[in-house]
Amino acid sequence: MAKAMKGGAVSESAPIYYEEMSKVAGKENDKQSITLIATDDAYNFGDYITLRSRTGHKPQVLTDRGAIISERMAGMMDAKVGDTITVTDSSGTERKVRVDGITEMHIGHFMFMTSGGYKHVFDEQYQSNAYMVRLKNHETSNVESRSAKLIKLDGAKGIVQNTTSKKQVATIVDLPDQIMEVLILAAELLAVVILYNLTNLNVSERIRELPTIKVLGGLGVLVYRRLKTVDMLGALKSVE
Questions:
Q1: What distance in Å separates the CA atoms of residue 126 and residue 202, rounded to the nearest whole number?
Q2: Whole-angstrom Cα distance, residue 3 to residue 148?
Q3: Which of 13, 28, 87, 165 has the most other CB atoms within 10 Å of its CB?
């Protein structure tokens, strides 16, 4: 396994400890999955995963005191920096972890620790069981091809691709845009229908008014002539 992590299509790799933990939380009070990643090389860990705060993008530094958790996980547990949270490991044992920092992440629940922090929380020696890998070619097709080859190696139980997370984020980001496009199209169609109906109604009313205008116009001329005749007779009467 270690040989496959060097050279060839692999740009660089680093051993880590990977474990799926859990926590009963959230509005539905259901079981939430938490991914624990621990490293014995905190200095170069940022080459693989960026740990930073949302406000100001301040770097979050891994220490042996506790763990850095993802923003979504902090929201789920209503946790703040300095708080102590409780999570359940794969064996069903509850572990208390101090929150050293909160990193900007919007997908999934993650917890990052150093080897020293792992030893402090789990009270056992750190031992890597997985690798973080960066490929020279980041194309999705190449990532999927390399993943298919790596999963066939002896000792490989599974592969987690960050391309999957990227697709999830892209889907979530694009969904509101698609909804807005549908709403805009529906509003445009509604506007066309309303304008069409108003135009037809206006034309119909004008057509109905035309005969009335003609009648009123003719009557007006008749009245004017009669008034003129009355005026003339009145003038002659006054002369007499």
A1: 82
A2: 17
A3: 87
